[in-house]
Specification:
About 85% of the residues lie in helices and about 0% in strands. The chain has about 120 residues and is an all-alpha fold. The longest helix is centred in the middle third of the chain and has 45 residues, at about 55-100.
Length: about 120
């Protein structure tokens, strides 16, 4: 697999319709971070080879972009972690309630929940 194949796989994954929006954004952010880091490394190699300094304005913009991307990525990851905690809590509540209800009562609870969800969707 070449670097081009890896990039194509990341793009295909990010554009997959089944991919959640937050996961898609993390893939896009990771790709942008990798590109900026590659540009910084390339500029540093050129500086070492040619003895010319890196443009400080460009370098500052690149580092600022990295900082903003990392901050956005951290916020998304924190939101996803919080959502995971909520999902585990919901699963635990469902398990407790299911244990306390017989089959008919549980079916009634599910029916009421489905009616409530359908009412919210309208």
């Amino acid at each position: 697999m070449t670097d081009t194949d890896t990039i194509d796989v990341a793009c295909a994954a990010a554009n997959s319709p089944a991919m959640p929006d937050d996961r898609r954004r993390i893939i896009e952010i990771d790709d942008a971070i990798a590109k900026i880091r590659t540009q910084i490394a390339t500029a540093d190699l050129a500086r070492q080879r040619g003895g010319k300094p890196i443009d400080p304005d460009w370098f500052h913009r690149a580092r600022t972009a990295l900082r903003h991307l990392n901050r956005e990525r951290s916020a998304i990851v924190a939101r996803r972690a919080n959502r995971g905690c909520k999902e585990r809590l919901k699963d635990a509540i469902i398990a407790v309630l299911r244990e306390r209800h017989d089959t008919d009562a549980w079916a009634n609870v599910l029916t009421q929940a489905q009616v409530r969800v359908e009412g919210e969707a309208r």
